[in-house]
User: What shape does this take?
Amino acid sequence: MEIDLNQQSKKEQSGTAYNLGDFKILVVEDSPFIANLLGSCLMEMGVGSVIKAGNVRDAKDKILSNNAMTSGQNIDMIILDWLMPDGTGGDVLKWIRGHKNASIKFVPVVICSAYTSTELVYESRDLGANEVMVKPVSAEKITQRMLHIIDHPRPYVQAPDFVGPDRRRRTLPFDGEDRRKNKPEVISES
Amino acid sequence: MSKSDVKIIHRKNKLKAKAGGEGGKGGYIDPRAVARGQASIEQQEENYADEVQIILTKIDSAWDDLKNEQGDPKKEKQNLSTLHNYANNIKDIAKTFDYELMSYFGESLRDFCEKLNVANPVHQVIVKAHIDVMWAAFKTNIKGEGSREAEELKIILNKAIEKHSKA
Assistant: This one.
């Protein structure tokens, strides 16, 4: 696959060149070959630290050991395969969004799957995924998902039956009557 | 539901700050770094054949285990899951390097595993047909789906599925 350097250089004129050197990304992938592929791609793109987990249990252990402590460098983003030997990416995502620790609960997650069904996209969204990336992986796809997470973070919704980024990607104008009985509490972290 | 049951939390954008971004302006990742990332993926194609051979051997083994350990529901579930995962791995790897035929067979086997009843002899024939055409595609190093050889292998598989599904 060729990267369109001309198109990319147009973007350079209007924005900041991001430095990913302080980023720590967890790749959860049961195929060591694909995990290495993703890892080397991320490192070449300038990501400072890439750690890998090969199954659901290993993923939870790595997340806990990195993000449960208040000190140290947390995992900043997770690229999460769907199909694994001891469960699914959905199991990990559900666990993340249900966690009490905010540095685990709100970590951005990109679901990375060879499944292309709309059901998987809806399921990932409803479990709180930030982005979905369909395999095969490419540097361009990874870049797009990372930039979307960095530049367009959505507020998190925390409700009894859902925790995750706001599922509405766009706010459409509405001039009708607001009939909600219980308005959500809006919290802005400073 | 009380008022506090639903919260909308606008979190501080720590990632942007960490990446050196500022304000509401968007940024970019150095296109040269993106190109290097893509090159590192493409470079791995030299290991494609070794990796696929390893996984096909594991598929053979997983299929033998699945047939031989029938009757133990726990083992059967685990063996089926193993076969399913390897088929999915083959699809992932083959698709990454545009081995469309192998990807097609991997996906077909993975999807078939989702309805596989190992006790059914018809299903056994269909799984075996998948494994045989995957090995054939590997040994003859067929990449795309358009060649005559590729078409023949797809016909062999589809005929096996059609014939035995009706039996």
About this structure: Chain A touches chain B through 67 residues (CB under 8 Å). Chain A has one domain: 2-165. The first strand of chain A starts at residue 16 and ends at 17. The CA atoms of residues 20 and 119 of chain A lie 32 Å apart.
